[in-house]
Write a structure and sequence with these properties.
The chain has about 160 residues and is an alpha+beta fold. It has one domain: Histidine kinase-like ATPase, C-terminal domain (Heat Shock Protein 90, 2-Layer Sandwich), CATH 3.30.565.10. It is built from 4 helices and 5 strands; from the N terminus they run βααββαββα. It has a 5-stranded antiparallel beta sheet, covered by helices on one side. Helix 1 runs antiparallel to helix 2, helix 2 runs antiparallel to helix 3 and helix 2 packs across helix 4. It is globular.
Length: about 160
Amino acid sequence: MKKEHKILKLKSVEESIHQLELLIEEVCDSNNLNHNYLGCITVSVTEAFNNAMTHGNKNNPDKSITVEYLKSSSGVNFTITDEGEGFDYKAIPEITDDGKEKVFPGRGLFLIKSLTDNVNFNEKGNEIGLGFKTTSINIETSVDRLEKFREYSSPNTIESN
């Protein structure tokens, strides 16, 4: 397996999303991931970046966000780290998708958890790791993610936290 590893240190500004999207496209292209998977990865990683910018760095353009990509034997992994004080990720309630509300506290984390295989935080709470299995994704998981992606990306439900 060819080792792929990249680190981006991005300014904590909305314009940095474009560099992040280019990295995601490059990762998906080099790993032959289809457009449905590209959508799930893009939504999850950009949501984590937006959370880091808004909640972690408090929209301070003098702070940065580090995005690390690493290919593993089972898939692709992204780590997003901000310069903020962190938060108590254990205090965020688990939310189930009952199909009713599309906007609620913790919606971004719920969305991330719905579209990824593994989500973890560092102890401080200023770093989130997102893992996407690419070697054993089955059709049921793929269809479920595609449905969730379509539901959450419909124009009348997109709202930022």
